[in-house]
Amino acid sequence: MADKLLVRAYQVGVGDCIYVHIPNSQDGFHMLIDCGTIGSIELLEKAVRHIKENLLPNAATPGKKRLDLLVATHRHKDHIKGFDPEFFKDIQIKNIWLSAVMNPEHKQSTHTLALHEMATQKMRALEAFNLSLSPQLQQLMSMFSLDNDDAIKALREKIPDENNISPVYVHAGMESKDLNLQLDDATIKILAPENDIDGFYLGKEYDESLKGFQNGKIFFDNHSISTGTDHPENISISDFLRLKSRMLTNEFAFAETDSSLQNNCSVVLLISWRGRRLLFTGDAEWESTYEDGKHNGSWNVMWKMRHADLNDKLDFIKIGHHGSQNATPWIDGNNQGLEVNQIFNAILPLPGNLSQRNAQAIISTERTNVYETIPSPDLLVELGKRIKNTRDYYSALATIDKDFYKKKPFKELWEYEREDLLKAQQPYRTDLEKIITSKGYVDVEIEPAE
User: Which of 148, 264, 357, 371 is positioned for an S-S bond with 298, CB 3.0–4.6 A?
Assistant: First the structure.
């Protein structure tokens, strides 16, 4: 493995915990990209311990291992929940990169930060009322919970303080050489987010909507949430409650807007190593096309602003947002002229035959009743036509247990894991690879092209 680059994705449920080893003349460059899940924290603790005990070299400080770079792509719990200082107490961390939007002083994301603060306040206030919500809304609400604050504080303060370093809030245009990283034959470019977060990802229309929501929030916050007794005298209780219900819908809509915005502010890394190109996407989303002054998806912004870096085939891609349809720029083949398909065909061109497939991919995922449509089987089948590390999961799982798909949880989710789709080739998935191999991770090894 000494002359190969290693990408290892740990099975942590719906979440990312990705280790990268880049060979160099010494003992290698060691990275951790994200450490989070919407599931059990124990999975993350186990993953960090495994990385420490099996992959990291000894640090200069006796009794510690060395991690050269820790990257938190964005603030969602499925990417940062595991950044508990206790998990990393025996690891000397040399560098920490955080998305520019995670900087509370970032002057080009003031509106974005205001929207996040408002969404956080409202979701926490609603949480206290024990509302009967769908699993999706419950999960959306949990993205704004107090334990997320702990992870953010650990990344901004506690872990840096313990390692005598300061976090670097990165944005597109920065490179490893500008950030004092010595990588020998490799470079790391940040392709997203752009520094002007409000301008590229929020847009003027959301700015106006935010002002209107703030005015409505003040009105409703001055009256009772749980009853209609304290309501304006010029409207009936029933009308007031209907307005309250509409406001509740708007609050979740703004929370969803913030959630999408945080995804679009993901740190996207392009690693170039000895003729190979590897893309780590966080949860970057796409829109149909780029529009100046509008809310834009991260992929569209990269296509416009970082075209030269993106307009070339990849050797590896970390499939974004756990296989969500909105995170890999592809719409079915009947729409080849769309901007998103232009991006897709540039980075993962459709080969003429199997021998021409050179790219590899990993998807960190787990199907649950919270996000039933994630991962998207149609997307994974399309990806399976364009990469070489694939598997027919239906056949592979049938060799273990021919009645596998008649059992929980797949029986309940059969609509999405259909037999005809599963028999097609798909990229390596952490959830199903765990069942097949009994390992808690999926590896991809990249050989140099030069």
Answer: 264
Helices (H) and strands (E) in the chain, counts: 16, 16
Report all structural domains of the chain as residue ranges with CATH numbers, in order of start: 5-106+145-198+260-446 (3.60.15.10), 110-143+199-259 (no CATH)
The C-alpha atoms of residue 53 and residue 226 are separated, in whole angstroms, by 52
Which three-class secondary structure state does DSSP give residue 219?
helix
- For 406-438, give one letter per residue: b (16+ CB within 10 A) or e: eeeebeeeeebbeeebbebbbbbbbbbbbeeee
Beta-strand relationship, 29-35 and 5-10:
unpaired
Instruction: Please state the length of the chain.
Output: 450
**What's the average pLDDT block by block, 10 residues per block, for the chain (450 residues)?**
88 96 92 95 96 95 95 96 95 97 94 88 77 75 80 96 97 94 92 96 72 50 44 48 54 82 96 97 94 93 96 96 93 76 93 79 89 87 93 86 74 70 87 90 92
Cα–Cα distance, 241 to 223 (Å, whole number): 11
E-strand stretches of 1-77: 5-10, 17-22, 29-35, 65-67, 69-72
Nearest in space to 286 (alpha carbons), one of 268, 308, 302: 302
Neighbours of 245 (CB within 10 A): 10
Secondary structure letter of residue 175 according to DSSP: B
User: Euclidean distance between the first and final Cα of the chain, in Å?
Assistant: 16
Q: Could you give the count of Cα atoms lying within 13 Å of 358 in the half-sphere of its Cβ? A: 14
- Measured N-to-C along each axis, helices 237-264 and 203-221 cross at an angle, to the nearest 10 degrees, of 140
Helical (H) or strand (E) element with 192? strand 186-192
**331-343 CB burial, b ≥16 within 10 A, e <16:** beeeeeebbbbeb
Which pTM does this prediction carry?
0.90
